[in-house]
């Protein structure tokens, strides 16, 4: 990061857009980046720091350098109320150049939104787009936003409050997104996106047995008597879920035995043969995490038959979490320890149709949806 920031400070650097999403940036990195942003020679106008868990302390370090930006994306950065105070300062700066602010999937709560609203209502703020999807906002937070819009009504044109519980909100904007606005979306973290899934028996290979109302799949030596079906995997021990997934979806699965593959696939993934077109993660129609247990966890992710090895964690677990945000084009895998998620890998893709949860089960293993 120090080398990158040195380059940004150079008078020869004309870079205007910098994307550092999912780069494991720390608070220390934010300090170096702030220095570059505040440099008189910096031409940077768009910055994406999404998926870096530098939290409020990182935002505070960055805040002084944010005033020259036009677009700032900080989704899933561990920001809370304290970080909102720093961001509100950037909104109130004179002059304020910020036009787009994206803070999705941070636990801002109403208290944080109230601080942002104070900046939004300031006469110097000319923000045009504010995205707060999945930020634990309820009626109280929306009241603060409405008050800010009445105070400074001429600039904001797009407000995203999807995956919150905003209640009724007058729409003085050109675009107001309040989709998925039930009370369940006030849960912190990714569990607000939890979805109920069931495995499709018509897709299950003959050696796979479904139980627990279609939420558990087990490898068995004996072939099951299965009626012929065009959706069934004939040669690979695989099963898909019934439900097509779009938007924001999160689920967890737990394995017993030697291991399994979990991923997503398009509905039309090939069912016949053992070639790459049928193997999970070995083609352009599927993405997967492979978890094998040989006294320790062995992890890898796959897409288009390209493997990325994940370093073995310090402690073992049998549970994984998967988060899909199809509109943002991200698919993320996690290890689950009690209520703590450890990020493993995020695929960035363009998803052109609904995706289906897929399991491949190793010999003498079983997998259950949690």
TrEMBL record:
Record keywords, A-Z: Leucine-rich repeat, Repeat
Gene3D superfamilies named in the record: 2.60.120.920, Ribonuclease Inhibitor
PROSITE patterns with a match to the protein in the record: B302_SPRY
Q: Where is the B30.2/SPRY domain?
A: 177-370
Superkingdom is Eukaryota
Query: PANTHER family under this entry?
Result: NACHT, LRR AND CARD DOMAINS-CONTAINING
Its name, as the record gives it, is: B30.2/SPRY domain-containing protein
Q: Which organism is it from?
A: Hucho hucho
């Amino acid at each position: 990061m120090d080398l990158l920031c040195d380059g940004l400070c150079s008078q020869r650097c004309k870079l205007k857009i910098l994307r550092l999403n999912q780069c494991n940036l720390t608070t220390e990195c934010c300090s170096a980046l702030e220095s570059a942003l505040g440099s008189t020679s910096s031409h940077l106008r768009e910055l994406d720091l999404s998926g870096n868990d530098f939290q409020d302390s990182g935002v505070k370090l960055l805040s002084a350098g944010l005033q020259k930006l036009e677009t700032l994306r900080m989704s899933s950065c561990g920001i809370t109320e304290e970080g909102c105070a720093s961001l509100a300062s950037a909104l109130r700066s004179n002059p304020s150049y910020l036009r787009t602010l994206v803070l999705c999937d941070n636990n801002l709560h109403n208290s944080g939104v109230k601080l942002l609203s104070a900046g939004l209502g300031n006469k110097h703020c000319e923000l045009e787009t504010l995205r707060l999807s999945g930020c634990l906002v309820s009626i109280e937070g929306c009241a603060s936003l409405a008050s800010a819009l009445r105070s400074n009504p001429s600039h904001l044109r797009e407000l995203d409050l999807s995956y919150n519980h905003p209640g009724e909100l007058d729409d003085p904007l050109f675009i107001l997104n309040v989709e998925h606005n039930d009370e369940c979306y006030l849960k912190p973290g990714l569990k607000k996106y939890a979805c109920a899934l069931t495995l499709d028996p018509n897709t299950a290979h003959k050696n796979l047995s479904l139980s627990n109302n279609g939420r558990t799949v087990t490898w068995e030596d004996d072939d099951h008597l299965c009626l012929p079906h065009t959706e069934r995997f004939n040669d690979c021990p695989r099963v898909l879920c019934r439900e097509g997934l779009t938007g924001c979806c999160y689920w967890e699965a737990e394995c017993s035995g030697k291991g399994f593959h979990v991923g997503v696939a398009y509905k039309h993934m090939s069912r016949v043969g053992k070639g790459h077109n049928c193997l999970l993660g070995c083609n352009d129609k599927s993405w997967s995490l492979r978890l094998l247990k040989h006294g320790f966890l062995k992890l890898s992710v796959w897409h288009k038959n390209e493997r990325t090895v994940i370093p073995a964690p310090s402690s073992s677990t049998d549970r994984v979490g998967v988060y899909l945000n199809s509109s943002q084009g991200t698919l993320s895998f996690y290890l689950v320890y009690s209520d703590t998620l450890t990020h493993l890998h995020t695929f960035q893709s363009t998803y052109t149709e609904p995706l289906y949860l897929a399991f491949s089960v190793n010999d003498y293993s079983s997998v259950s949806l949690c």
